Amino acid sequence: TYNIATSKEISINELFDKINVRFNNSYKPLIEPMKKGEQMRSCLSYDKVNKNLNWEPKIKIDEGLKRTYEWFKNQ
User: What are the pLDDT tens digits along the chain (75 aa)?
Assistant: First the structure.
């Protein structure tokens, strides 16, 4: 099992905003009080896949989200 990631931290709100741009900012975030133990940020390392398969990210998150959105839109 490998993490295919950037090793760069991003908040859930930042990720929401980046995805929402693809939908012309038509969604409003539902902000509720945090639940105990709720994750605020995420940062995954790609060290294992880099070591074993010599893989590293070549596409920035904005471009990757754009390509993913376009792929699903065209299905």
Answer: 998 888 888 888 899 999 999 999 999 999 899 899 988 777 899 999 999 999 999 999 999 999 999 999 999
Global pTM?
0.73
Phi/psi zone of residue 6: left (φ > 0), alpha (ψ -120 to 50 degrees), beta?
alpha
Residue with the two structure tokens 């950037």? 6
Task: Quote the CA–CA distance of 7 and 46 in Å, as a whole number.
Answer: 6
Q: With beta carbons less than 8 A apart as the criterion, state whether 55 and 7 touch.
A: no
What single-letter amino acid sits at 57? Answer: P
Tokens 């902000």 sit on residue: 31
Q: How far apart are the C-alpha atoms of 69 and 65, rounded to whole Å?
A: 6
